[in-house]
Specification:
Radius of gyration: 15 Å
CATH topology of the largest domain: Lysozyme
Helix content: 40-55%
CATH architecture of the largest domain: Orthogonal Bundle
Distance between the termini: 21 Å
Order of helices and strands: HEEHHHHHEEH
Structural class: mainly alpha
CATH class of the largest domain: Mainly Alpha
Largest sheet: 2 strands, antiparallel
């Protein structure tokens, strides 16, 4: 379920500053499950990185209500929400469109490609991949 996140986030076992300038570790973890922020000098194992990712997705991500999602759609949503944050997603036109099954509006608003105001090529590719997974069969034929 989380392979897409792992692919795009990559795994770093020593703390680093992400493009948004936030201390990060593992697959994009910025806060440990106990709420402690990642700080410079932190180190973890691959198993801890996997555990933090799974914990976060199970406890901090809420998918839109009222829609039965396929495995690929869930993977795309987890990747998107993990990357942009639950709050940003909850306020989005994209989420409202998904809940209303307005696929064209959701597709057009699945567009988070900036960090600190700069367009990032990696985010363009990530959004493209997520869109392909989520909207396959909804907007075009297989």
């Amino acid at each position: 379920m989380f392979d897409l996140i792992k692919f795009f986030e990559g795994c770093r076992l020593e703390a680093y500053k992400c493009p948004a300038g936030i201390w990060t570790i593992g697959y994009g973890t910025t806060l440990y499950p106990d709420g402690t922020p990642v700080k410079e000098g932190d180190k973890i194992t691959r198993e801890q990185a996997d555990s933090y990712l799974e914990w976060y997705c199970a406890n901090c991500i809420e998918l839109p209500k009222g829609v039965q999602f396929t495995h690929d759609q869930k993977a795309a949503l987890y990747s998107l929400i993990y990357n942009i944050g639950q709050l940003a997603f909850d306020k989005s036109v994209c989420k409202k469109a998904i809940e209303n099954m307005d696929w064209i509006t959701a597709y057009r608003n699945w567009d988070w490609i900036r960090a600190n105001g700069k367009v990032l090529k990696g985010l363009i590719k990530r959004r493209q991949t997520e869109r392909e997974l989520f909207f396959d069969g909804l907007l075009w034929e297989d």
